[in-house]
Amino acid sequence: MKGDAIELDPANAQKIAAVVAGLRRQAAVKPPTYDHLQNRVANIEKRFFAILDEIDRILRTGEENADQFTLAVGRMSAALSRLIKDNSL
Predict the structure, then answer these.
(1) Per the domain annotation, does 8 fall within a domain?
(2) Among residues 11, 12, 23, 53, which one has the fewest Cβ atoms lying within 10 Å of its Cβ?
(3) What is the pTM of this model?
(4) Under 8 Å CB-to-CB from 1, ≥6 apart: which residues?
């Protein structure tokens, strides 16, 4: 019913009730609060630095298959660079 006019007539009561119910559902959906977003960002940052710590531990111990690891780190770095570029960060 987006943009359609519904005549206020008893015959249209069900249509009107459905539109009003939809508007009420939309109004009830609340966007994420700043605190929620701040928590999400803090969680992402915590996980990111945990991954960096793990990478550092692997590099310091000189584990086998270093070439595979080097390729994986290169892919992660490229993906992060793309994210930064694509979102003008």
Answers:
(1) no
(2) 11
(3) 0.52
(4) 15, 18, 19, 22
